[in-house]
Automatic annotation (TrEMBL):
Name recorded for this polypeptide: TldD/PmbA family protein
Residue span(s) of domain Metalloprotease TldD/E central: 124-228
Gene3D superfamilies documented for this protein: PmbA/TldD superfamily (3.30.2290.10)
PANTHER family cross-referenced by the UniProt entry: METALLOPROTEASE PMBA
Domain of life: Bacteria
Start and end residues of each Metalloprotease TldD/E C-terminal domain: 236-451
Domain (Metalloprotease TldD/E N-terminal) ranges: 25-89
Species this chain originates from: Marinibaculum pumilum
InterPro entries according to UniProt: Metalloprtase-TldD/E_C, Metalloprtase-TldD/E_cen_dom, Metalloprtase-TldD/E_N, PmbA, TldD/PmbA_N, TldD/PmbA_sf
Similarity comment: Belongs to the peptidase U62 family.
Length: 452
């Protein structure tokens, strides 16, 4: 089906809901296709393919709302969606914060068309199963070519495409399509109890932007070999550097803390910090839903609101919560255009392409300035308290002596409090804007490292 067919179907569904007694309604359609392969120790392991198509209807009767969804888009199934949705809305308690986005916030058809073209989210290439297998095989062979690699934990390659369409009773109608490609390799070095594992991967919107299979395999192999013969270290308080591969997890904790729903519930450790400096001067954290070919880019959010690039942290100061319409009304604010939504659930605040802007120092300079400390390349577990900010996670990486990585370490824990960690965070200059959450390598001073 074409996008126009999708929009016609949704407009008809919304119209039926209004005719059946809904004061307002919106409908969303999501469609996806994915295929993938895995290859291990010279042989294919799995070949998968899945397709889905779902439609969701949200109806409002006064200040009551209800949601229904189905993978069946036949006329009879859609009629049942409307009937069940109206009946449910009349039975549920009132929610004074629910409702559609205000019409003046919605994107126009012309603006959506322009943004969709500029975002360039869809590549028409669909690799065959044989081509995906060849990519995974090449990655594994490149890993085995690294001296010291003894086994493979598997390589995988995949392709996906999808589209989203949304229509509301306030006149919004829009849709967009996208594609994505990924390739990953996990290598094992060493023998017996001395084996170590590491990996590399890439994910992009356009196939020609995907890192070469040989590069991904070689990097995975070299990382695994570098971790051989790890040592243990004693407990102490030292600077900790988070490699950019894992530094994005710190932004993930920030994202949860500034989510409007968490703030409204009072379950965020930053709930009273709006307008205050929570990072050092010069630190900027930006969310950009309009980044061309971004993995989480989209021309409008789950309520039809056009998103804009926004600095949630500006010069170290927290400037805004992440808001959809419901959380914005609850907090007495306006939506930031960050509603995230599926066919089966209501909108909720969600970030898109979040990035910590790079600093001016190189990674080598950050290491030289710290003298002794820990360089983290792997984090294990999820020991983070979202209410207090207390942070404790298992880690692996390298011990730093005299400003340089000296030897691999393992079986250690890094701990602190995110409020203190953000204050002492220093970013390097090695940011790559490639994923949904991107960070340069960062150094955090004064963390507790627990070892032997």
């Amino acid at each position: 089906m074409t996008q126009q067919n999708d929009l016609d179907l949704l407009a008809d569904l919304v119209g039926r809901a209004r005719a059946a007694g809904a004061d307002a309604a919106d409908a969303i359609l999501t469609e996806s296709l994915s295929s993938g392969v895995s290859w291990r120790m010279g042989k294919p392991e799995d070949v998968e393919r899945s397709e889905s198509r779902d439609v969701g209807l949200r109806v409002f009767v006064g200040q009551r709302q209800a949601l229904t969804s189905s993978s069946d888009t036949s006329p009879a199934a859609l009629a049942e969606l409307v009937e069940r949705g109206i009946a449910m809305a009349r039975a549920v308690p009132e929610d004074r914060w629910c409702g559609l986005a205000e019409p003046e916030l919605l994107g126009s058809a012309e603006e959506i068309a322009r943004l969709t073209a500029e975002l360039d989210l869809r590549d028409g290439a669909e690799p065959t199963t044989e081509e995906l297998i060849a990519m995974a095989r090449a990655a594994e062979e490149a890993a085995f070519a690294v001296d010291g690699v003894t086994k493979s934990d598997g390589a995988s390659a995949g392709f996906g495409s999808g589209r989203v369409a949304l229509a509301t009773s306030t006149g919004f109608a829009g849709g967009y399509a996208g594609s994505h490609y990924h390739l990953a390799m996990s290598a094992i070095a060493g023998e017996g109890l001395g084996m170590e594992r590491d990996s590399d991967y890439d994910a992009v919107r356009h196939l020609r932007n995907l890192d070469a299979a040989e590069q991904i395999g070689r990097t995975a192999g070299e990382r695994a070999v570098a971790r051989l013969k790890p040592r243990k270290v004693g407990s102490r308080k030292v600077p900790v550097v988070f490699d950019r591969r894992v530094a994005g997890s710190l932004l993930g904790h920030l994202a949860g803390a500034i989510n409007g729903q968490a703030v409204a519930r009072g379950t965020s450790f930053l709930r009273n910090r709006m307008g205050q400096r929570i990072f050092a001067e010069g630190i900027t954290v930006t969310d950009d839903p309009l980044r061309p070919r971004g993995l989480r880019s989209r021309p409008f959010d789950g309520e039809g609101v056009i998103g804009r690039s926004r600095d949630f942290i500006s010069d170290g100061v927290l400037t805004s919560w992440v808001l959809d319409c419901g959380s914005a009304r609850q907090l007495g604010l306006k939506t930031t255009g960050h509603a995230s939504r599926s066919a089966g659930g209501p909108p909720g605040p969600g970030l898109t392409n979040l990035a910590l802007n790079p600093g001016r120092r190189s990674v080598d300079e950050l290491l030289a300035e710290m003298g002794e400390g820990l360089y983290v390349t792997e984090l294990i577990g999820m020991g983070v308290n979202a209410v207090t900010g207390d942070y404790s996670r298992g880690a692996g990486g390298f011990w730093v002596e005299n400003g340089r990585k000296a030897y691999p370490v393992s079986e250690i824990t890094v701990a602190g409090n995110l409020k203190d960690m953000f204050q002492t965070l220093t970013p390097a200059d090695d940011l790559e804007r490639k994923r949904g959450i991107d960070s340069p390598t960062v150094r955090i001073d004064g963390m507790t490292v627990a070892g032997t």
